[in-house]
Structure formats: C-alpha cells, structure tokens
Specification:
The structure is a homodimer. By secondary structure, chain A is α/β, with parallel strands linked by helices. The first copy, chain A, has one domain: Dihydrofolate Reductase, subunit A. Chain A is built from seven helices and eleven strands. In chain A, the strands form two sheets. A nine-stranded mixed sheet of chain A has the order 5-6-4-3-7-1-8-11-10, with helices on both faces. Chain A has a two-stranded antiparallel sheet with strand order 2-9. In chain A, strand 5 and strand 6 form a beta hairpin. Chains A and B meet through strand 10 of A and strand 10 of B.
Chain lengths: 214, 214
Amino acid sequence: MTRVRIDLFSSLDGYTSAGGSPENPMGEDWGLLTTAYVATRTVKERVFGDTSGTGTTGVDDAYAAASFEGIGAEIMGAAMFGLHSFPDDPGWKGWWGDEPPFGFPVYVLTSTAPRPEVEMRGGTSFRFRDASLDCVLAEASEAAGALDVRVGGGIGTARSFLRAGLVDDLHVAVAPVLLDRGHRVWEDLRGLERTHRMTSEVAESGTIHVTFSR
Amino acid sequence: MTRVRIDLFSSLDGYTSAGGSPENPMGEDWGLLTTAYVATRTVKERVFGDTSGTGTTGVDDAYAAASFEGIGAEIMGAAMFGLHSFPDDPGWKGWWGDEPPFGFPVYVLTSTAPRPEVEMRGGTSFRFRDASLDCVLAEASEAAGALDVRVGGGIGTARSFLRAGLVDDLHVAVAPVLLDRGHRVWEDLRGLERTHRMTSEVAESGTIHVTFSR
C-alpha cells in the first residue's frame, strides 16, 4: 500500500533555511540544520559517493537510511527543482547533474513553466505538472506501484500536502540550533498530533527526530 | 554560587499560550502545554496539595521536582503578577491567594505601578521594582543568598533576561502538540546553543525536555 512520506529539517525554533542564491540554493543556514545528517554513513555513501564506510551509524543514520528506502516516485515544487532560480533556461534539468540520485519518476509542480518530460540517466525522469495536489499525487502513486511517494519539498510544497491531509508519514529532524530566521516548518499545522501519532527520539548528535504517522 | 534559572513551556512549534482573560490568565492553550506537568506527583503535591502519592514519577516528574529545588528568590513581569489584568486595584496581591507557593521574596518588574512591599503568609513577599534587569537581578541574588534566582515569566520577561545573557540554566518542556498561535518562546535567541550547552530528553509522555546551561 503506497504511503505518502515527507522528511524535513528544522531548527529547534521551528525554522528551515530560507532559499538562497543559485550558487547556494539551500540557503546559508542549511549547513547548521544538516550537520548530523551529512555525518551519517548512509548519506556519505548515497549522496556523496563516499564508500569508505566512515560516518555515524547511530540514530541519525537509522533515520537517514529509512528515508531512502522504498520510494517509487517523488513530488517536488518548482523552486526546489530550480525553475525559480533559472526561469529563462528551458533546458534546465535540476541541480543533480546528468544522473540524479532518484532513480524513479519525479513530478515537478509548476503552473508557469510547463515543459516536456526529461529522461535522465539512472532511471530518473522529470515530469512537469500543472494540476491539483490530489491529481499529481494520484499519478505519482500509480507510478510508484507498491512503493511509497515522497514529497521532497520545498517547505511550502510539503506544508501544502500536510494541510491537505495527504501525508501519512512525516519525519522532522530537529537540529539543536536556534536560527530565528527562515521559513516556518510548522506553520498552519495546528492539531497535527490529533490526526497522526507523534513520536520523538533524541540522537547521539542532539538532533531530535520527530515523526507523525497515521 | 547563585545561578539564574528559567523554566518554560513550549509547543513543538515554539509557542507558549498567549495570556488570556482575568478569569483564565494563562490563556486557553495552557492546558495543552502543561498536561504532562500537572500529571506529575510533584506538581500534584506541591501545587495542588494532593498528598495521595498518585501522579507520574518518571522523567517529567524529575524535571518538575528540580524546578522547585533550591530557589531563594524569584523575578516576574508585571503581567504575570496580574498588574495588567487589574490595573486599577492598588491592593492586588497576585493570583496565588493569602499564602502563595513561593516562600521567598518575589520581585515584580513594573514601571507603571510602583507600590509598597507586600508581605504574605508563608514567607513570600512581593517587592515591586522599576529598575534595570541587572539591578533587580543583583538585589534578588543578594536576597537568595546561596540559593538560586528563578525568572518566573512571563515569556517576554524570560526572553529579556535570556537576550541580556543573564540566564545560566534554561529548561523548556516542549509538549507534543502544534498550537500555531501564541507567543514565540524562542524569538530573538539565535545562537543560544553556542553560549550554552544544550541537552534534550524525551519523557514517557512525549514531552521533550530541552535544557541550555552554562
């Protein structure tokens, strides 16, 4: 049964990094939020191609590994794909090079930049959609088959799916830092603990892993 | 050595209950934030006079018990004392009845309602001060002797002391709820984790106890 999943990063005060420049698309506080994540063995291997076997193998790594497992399709917003950073480049193919680390269909939500599907190496295809969240999710679920659909971000897209009640599993890695700036991760989600069961677990790094599941 | 301590309640999204009416001074979300706290054996005994020995005795209770230990003086804002709710009552003596549960001097910050010291039963005295945070803290520390000074709140007063770098120990009980409204607990405290060591611990209730100490 396909589930809809989201993984987010937050500061203790509920912020995620505000989008930065084309040179630094994740924003300048992104490093503070992801210190423990990028230190895990899973991320070193799967994201950075570091197969030396170094990296942490504790609680942070368990959540990182889980976030990669069982995904059959992804949905992301136009900004996350980069359409807002490079609006005049009809050939823009995302931030991830010729062989993006997805390996499945990625549905990009855009009402302003429709374009044909782009097939990348390694099984990733970028499919641009101007449709309701429900419709895109139905298509992504179909594509995912027995696997799950991940709403990849950014934070606005993630919150839209959460507010619409379309998300089964939310994981937020709360970093032990106070940012006092950025986008609010939890905005307009009052009462989510009443529709989803919440758990919390503190990792060796001080990161608090919060999950909401139904 | 006197330390300056603060205990606060927050929702997962970083809000504390906005002040309510004179009939409900803590605001309507206060119950959601303090469910686990009022369920502890310590609070049942010390706040509600329930000596039946019921109540939780786990992690929440340990933090609750610690919050009562070793306090020799308190500082609170005018609103927490009730001066804003009852501005025209020069005989107002706080919310806590004839024998308030302090047992030590309580310094009330007020620039608009100076009044003589009020001696209550049980060792509590209310002392009204229109002075800088430093000056009031120096006086409270003197009064506390070898014990600690607690900044009792409200949230604005607590943040003022935190921002001024006057707080040694902050404990925040983060309740497993999303409020999406109220006063922001963490506002304007970017980088507190660099001046204070942060810890987190999840209680049986799902409350996340976060501490900052130096």
